[in-house]
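Supplementary Methods. Inverse-folding protocol.

Structures were first reduced to a discrete structure-token string of length 177. This string, shown here, constituted the complete conditioning input.
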């Protein structure tokens, strides 16, 4: 558990100092606009979702992120996933995250997403792998709402300089193409 918090702490500290620019390893979140309560930490489970169409081409690679409401009540949130890469032994890898459209999908923009229990939301995650400043990630931390609560998932990927692009969360899977 300590190593997981270390990677999150490094990503938060780097983002707070502005060393990686806006959007680095943090999530942009706004308050819900409907009657649904805000999703609480621990009720959203994030995962890499390989069920989407293949995302590979021109030295770009991607996958979908899926966020599922594991709670017992409907809740709402909005924004972008907070992301941080980890290496072997869960060591922190400096991570730069760009919010907006990816190489494969248009950004839907920040909109409220309301999830019933068991329902999911998606975002598109893309990186490049041309060999420039390659880092060897083993894990990906996904913070659904920018809080300290996060899921750590297996993510054995080589990527350039710890740079990721991600769309905002959406109630529907992003159109890939």
């Amino acid at each position: 558990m300590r190593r997981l918090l270390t990677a999150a702490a490094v990503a938060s500290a780097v983002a707070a100092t502005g060393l990686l620019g806006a959007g680095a390893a943090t999530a942009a979140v706004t308050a819900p606009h409907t009657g649904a309560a805000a999703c609480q930490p621990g009720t959203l489970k994030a995962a890499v979702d390989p069920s989407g169409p293949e995302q590979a081409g021109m030295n770009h690679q991607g996958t979908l992120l899926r966020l599922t409401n594991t709670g017992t009540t409907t809740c709402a949130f909005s924004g972008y996933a907070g992301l941080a890469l980890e290496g072997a032994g869960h060591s922190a890898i400096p991570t730069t995250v760009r919010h907006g459209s990816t190489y494969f999908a248009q950004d839907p923009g920040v909109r409220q997403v309301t999830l019933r229990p068991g329902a999911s939301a998606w975002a598109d995650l893309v990186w490049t792998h041309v060999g420039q400043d390659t880092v060897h990630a083993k894990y990906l931390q996904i913070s659904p709402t920018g809080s300290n609560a996060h899921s750590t998932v297996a993510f054995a990927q080589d990527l350039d300089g710890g740079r990721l692009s991600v769309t905002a969360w959406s109630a529907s899977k992003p159109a890939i193409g």
